[in-house]
Each structure stands twice: as C-alpha cells, then as structure tokens.
Design a protein that fits this description.
Blueprint: H1 3-26, E1 33-37, H2 53-59, E2 67-69, E3 81-83, E4 86-91, E5 97-102, H3 116-126, E6 146-151, E7 156-161, H4 168-173, H5 186-191, E8 199-205, E9 209-214, E10 229-233, E11 237-241, E12 260-264
Parallel strand pairs: 1-12
Antiparallel strand pairs: 2-3, 4-5, 4-11, 5-7, 6-7, 8-9, 9-12, 10-11
Length: about 280
C-alpha cells in the first residue's frame, strides 16, 4: 500500500478516535470521586473569615447564598440572579428595605432547620453587632450601609439600609456571601463548617487535603436537579419558581457530578476532598 494512502488512513482513524473521545467527555458522568489539586492552603474553612479564592473554591459547594449569580452564564449580571435560600425578593418604594421570602423545608447538614434567624445572625455578625467567635471579618465594609436585619416569622427577613444602594444585591450574590448557621460557633466553622449546600465537609486537613461528600449519596436531591424559572423581572422585584425535577434530570452544565471529590496540595499523594455539582440545591429534610 502506498505510504500516502497509509498516512491518510492513519490520520482518519486518529481523527475518529478524537471525535469519539470528545463526544464521551460531553456526556455527564454521575457518581465516583473527583480529585483536584489545589495550589494554596486555605487558612481556614470559614468563608466569611477569609478573603481569597483559596477558601471559596473548595468550600463554596458546602453553602448556599440567599441569591447567587447565574452559574451557567458567561459573566456575572446583577439582572440575572438565581434564587437559592430565598424564593423571592422585593424592594420597598424608597429602596431602603429589601425583603426576602425564604425557602421552607431546608436543613443544615447537622439536621437542624434553616430559618430567618440564621440570616439575621450571619449579617449581624458581619456588621459587628453579634459575636460569633470569628477571628477576622474582611467584608464588614461591604455592609457599612446596612442599618438592621429584621425577621418576620421563620421564613421572611428584611435588610434595612441607611440610603438606597443599587450594589447591595451584588454583594449578596457574591460567592463570598453564604448564610451561616446561627447555632454553630466560629471555631467549628473554621475547622469543619456546616452548611446547607449539596456537599458536606468530611475532613479538612490543613496542608494536606480537603474531603467533601454529596449530601444525598443514595440519589436524593443533591446537585442540579432543579432549574430556576424566572416568573417576574423588574427593578424592584425578582421571583423564581422551582418546579418538581423531572425523572432522570441531569446537570444543565454538562459537567461531571461526583458523589465525592478531592483537593490536595502539590506533592501530596493522598488526594481527598471537595466534590462539586451545582450550588442551587439546599439540603432538604
């Protein structure tokens, strides 16, 4: 066979193999363990006490925000937010009161119920009005305009501002604005934090590894099984409805959805840690 023909056949076979591999990678894979090497050693596991991506990257999946930027969009857009622990929100006419209706039936990883008291405790601590045993508070200045946090029952909370502040929702939607449990002290949150997110902390070993595990390892609601569906949009209100997940629903991001995952530091052979699906799934009782 002429060498030119053999070269053409080999090239075609190589291209076919590459295309087959790409197609396989495009399919979502569920279960298993994802191992990731982390370039830095987080000073602690407490996102509210740390100021860098070193803590946010491995621990963001442990928590939920009230709202978060659309994680499927190419860039953050303050008009494209996803409801997490909140279900709807509205501004008062003078734009100094922001009220959230909270999701019911959500539990912390230790089984205690999530309520409006947790939201108030979190932002009272950030504002310096409550002592939760934090050693650092790097984002206190973000909320210098926050005058008070008020609750109305277990599932409604309001933020009262000193003056109108269009950027306030952007701060709440940041990856560094999770809701913390009111019943857990700062020391625990630095070492083995408790959240409402799709993954719980199994072990945090400084300078070695972090291990997270899915909160529903037997196939429950862990990961991106709901797709928020906006039903209203205006300058003063955002609402999102959460329909029941369809059978065999899969990740809208097409990313792998492991049950466990791993972050370790270079040079460490023992890879354990963080798993990731999507953040839009508070733990439910």
């Amino acid at each position: 066979m002429p060498s030119r023909i053999r070269t053409g056949i080999a090239g075609a076979a190589f291209l076919a193999a590459m295309l087959a591999g790409a197609a396989a990678l495009a399919e979502p894979q569920r279960g298993g363990t994802l191992r990731v090497y982390h370039r830095e050693n987080p000073a602690s596991a407490s996102m509210h006490e740390e100021a860098s991506i070193a803590t946010v990257m491995p621990f963001m999946a442990v928590f939920n925000n009230l709202v978060v930027y659309n994680q499927q969009a190419e860039r953050n857009d303050p008009d494209d937010l996803t409801a997490e622990l909140a279900t709807e929100w509205r501004w008062s006419e003078d734009h100094r009161r922001l009220t959230f209706r909270l999701r019911e039936g959500v539990t912390w990883h230790d089984g205690k119920p999530f309520t409006s008291a947790d939201v108030k405790c979190t932002w009272d601590t950030i504002a310096g009005r409550r002592n939760a045993g934090w050693r650092k508070n790097p984002r206190r200045d973000w909320y210098a305009n926050l005058q008070a946090v008020e609750t109305s029952g277990d599932f409604e909370v309001s933020f009262l501002l000193g003056r109108p502040q269009p950027s306030f929702m952007a701060f709440l939607a940041s990856g560094m604005s999770p809701v913390y449990p009111c019943h857990v002290d700062g020391r625990t949150m630095r070492q083995k934090p408790i959240g409402t997110g799709p993954f719980r902390v199994v072990e945090f070993r400084p300078n070695n590894s972090i291990e997270l595990a899915a909160t529903r390892p037997t196939g429950g609601r862990a990961g991106p099984t709901w797709t928020p569906s906006p039903t209203a949009s205006s300058a003063t209100a955002r609402h999102a409805s959460w329909p029941s997940p369809p059978a065999n629903s899969t990740s809208p991001s097409r990313a792998t959805s492991p049950r466990r995952c791993c972050a370790t530091w270079p040079g460490r052979r023992r890879a354990r840690s963080a798993s990731s699906t999507a953040r839009t799934s508070p733990a439910r009782s």
